[in-house]
Amino acid sequence: MATVLLIDDHDIVRFGIDTLMRAAGLHVVASAQSLAAGLAAMAELRPDLVVTDMGIGDSHGLDTVRRVLAAQSPRPVLVVSMQDELLYAEPVLALGAAGYVMKETAHANVVPAARAALAGSKWASAAVVAHLAARAARRRDALPSATQDHLTTRELQILEQLKSGKTTKEIATALHLSVRTVDSHRANIKQKLELRTGAELIAFASSRL
């Protein structure tokens, strides 16, 4: 059974997420109301997944996410926050978090997001995916066709795999490549297409092919 650590300074939020996780068969091993307590619990318990807010006591925003990611790496971190997902989901995912869930939709989304994170995938709401896809489409349309045509056959294969929702590890297996090689191809595609983040790359793949 996968183990989960919750970090949030609101008792009612921790209780609610704890209840949802347990009902889904996930084992909440600890619940922390401060970042310091959460970091200590991570070091001691090494949970399979950390679910954290961005604003915990005196720690706020992306700095909180960076600190939790550094302590939890390479295991996944899921951010659950009241902040607007259209503003914060992309930078949180770009830092390396596995997903971003708004608290107002946590009752419906936190368990699917947790399961995706534990499976090695990224999770974002349909609204975030649509927002990124629209922006990627605008970037795509602004690019000279020669730039897009400059992608190699292997890079196009990577895009096709990304469109199907596969993780880097799954792409490596499907194409008989190493994970490092797939990561290198992803970096090359982003550079050629002037995409900044992995989320933009996935959105581009969805809109392009």
UniProtKB/TrEMBL annotation:
<dbReference type="InterPro" id="IPR011006">
    <property type="entry name" value="CheY-like_superfamily"/>
</dbReference>
<dbReference type="GO" id="GO:0006355">
    <property type="term" value="P:regulation of DNA-templated transcription"/>
</dbReference>
<feature type="modified residue" description="4-aspartylphosphate">
    <location>
        <position position="53"/>
    </location>
</feature>
<feature type="domain" description="Response regulatory">
    <location>
        <begin position="3"/>
        <end position="118"/>
    </location>
</feature>
<feature type="domain" description="HTH luxR-type">
    <location>
        <begin position="144"/>
        <end position="209"/>
    </location>
</feature>
<dbReference type="InterPro" id="IPR016032">
    <property type="entry name" value="Sig_transdc_resp-reg_C-effctor"/>
</dbReference>
<dbReference type="InterPro" id="IPR000792">
    <property type="entry name" value="Tscrpt_reg_LuxR_C"/>
</dbReference>
<keyword id="KW-0238">DNA-binding</keyword>
<dbReference type="Pfam" id="PF00072">
    <property type="entry name" value="Response_reg"/>
</dbReference>
<dbReference type="GO" id="GO:0000160">
    <property type="term" value="P:phosphorelay signal transduction system"/>
</dbReference>
<dbReference type="InterPro" id="IPR001789">
    <property type="entry name" value="Sig_transdc_resp-reg_receiver"/>
</dbReference>
<dbReference type="GO" id="GO:0003677">
    <property type="term" value="F:DNA binding"/>
</dbReference>
<dbReference type="Pfam" id="PF00196">
    <property type="entry name" value="GerE"/>
</dbReference>
<dbReference type="InterPro" id="IPR039420">
    <property type="entry name" value="WalR-like"/>
</dbReference>
<keyword id="KW-0597">Phosphoprotein</keyword>
<dbReference type="InterPro" id="IPR058245">
    <property type="entry name" value="NreC/VraR/RcsB-like_REC"/>
</dbReference>
<protein>
    <submittedName>
        <fullName>Response regulator transcription factor</fullName>
    </submittedName>
</protein>
